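Fold it.
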Amino acid sequence: MKIAIVILNWNGKELLEQFLPSIIKFSNEASIYVADNASTDHSVAFIKEAFPLVKIIQNQKNGGYAKGYNDALKHIDEDIYCLLNSDVEVSKNWLNPVIEVFKNNSNTAIVQPKILDFKDKTAFEYAGAAGGFIDKYGYPFCRGRIFNTIEKDKGQYNDVTNIFWASGACFFIRKNLFKTLNGFDESFFAHMEEIDLCWRAFNLGYETKYAGNSTVYHIGGATLNSSNPKKTYLNFRNNLFMITKNAEGWIFFLVFARLILDGLAGIKFLLEFKVLHTFAIIKSHFSFYKNLPRLLKQRRSINKKKNYYHRTSIIWLYYIRKHKYFNCL
């Protein structure tokens, strides 16, 4: 079973300098690629000089996470793709537990390791933690992280188990399924495209698993941090894209409920004097309306399965019932 570690880079020379050494040191079982998204910071020249054994794929433009990986993976033939953020440090023996999950579970198409915070290695990291789920309204949350409450790693998730989505920070997928699904939806650009891909895999009957005996450390927000209104725009817009395409049943009430809840989030931003984030939500809704005919066309081509979500609203459980941790849900 051959593995390709593929690191998408856009003007990330300093991150590559910091994190490529651990990847090279602890990844003898894999081939290592850097897929460069038309960087202008001399990243490619640096890799060629400092890490000559790392293979380079140069994309013609910065198409974001989704198109960047779609373009790059066309040139890679290994059986398993590991899509790894450039701000991730890996640990000794991180690949073998993931390989074992794939070998022992033929129906498993996607795997995520344990993702801890690089800046506090005793805590889970926001983007993925110990594996992802969604609630009845399409809100993502994780074992180890619900909204902004992040758990300490005390070994409570040192297991191998089914999850609904795997984090794009460190995302293993079988090459054949990636091609079957035609890769990421490039209209997402960045954020939640991995959840959309996992959902489409689920709708085809495949499993996504978490391997808690494999650990990586993620900085998070190194490319686009949470204070940036563009991130708010992409998260709100792409969530609407995702549920419209993939959710089971008649989706009018689901989408309507989400639009209302998004409006309440916009009011919350206003009360916090984050006006640009409120405008980002409004902008995301206009983009959703513009793309709705295309999304409905995509929806008709996707088989949809029941029981994909946590049956209760995570907003209700978190903010009203005060259930802050995954084991309380």
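The two ends are 37 Å apart (CA to CA).
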